[in-house]
Amino acid sequence: MQRFQPFINVGLTVSLVAMATAVIDSQERLSRGEWRYFGGDKAFTRYSSLDQINRDNVRNLRIVWRRPAVNDLLTKAFPNLRPNAYLRATPIMVDGVLYTQDAHGLVTAIEGETGRTVWAEDPSFATVDEANAGRPTRGVDYWRGGARNVDKRIFASSCGRSTSCRALGNSATTPGATSLGKSRAISARGIR
Length: 192
Description:
Blueprint: H1 5-31, H2 72-77, E1 92-94, E2 97-101, E3 107-111, E4 117-120, H3 128-133, E5 155-157, E6 167-170
Antiparallel strand pairs: 1-2, 2-3, 3-4, 5-6
């Protein structure tokens, strides 16, 4: 057993260094104001190390921009639209851009400092009933690749900064399915 002790010590040291590096990297991103997950981080801690706002200055805060709960294109197309009053989406922030949903579940990217729309999901509803069927969730998520999706569904917006966006939608839950509904097909290999 003693002859394996040096290997065990090296293995433990490497593991501790790797974990410390991951924690420091995560804290550095959070310290820059990133909020990449619905709960702040993968552990759902809801913690932010930002400290500019405190008890002494919170009363001095002022609203610098606002967003409508419903995409303007929808309200113009459907004047009788009934938006969901239970809007509860928590925005996430990645690289200074906020990503959130409106009252009908359409995703929008917003420049955090100015409130300017970077891109918005195309509200391509044919009828007011379809538009009213859209529902918000608690938020959106950000994924750069890696881990597998447990229930085999894809909810994706393939959008770049400063371009209009058409959501790719929701694939069927059947493994290997490529159909996303009304003429919006995609190959899983094509998502990057």
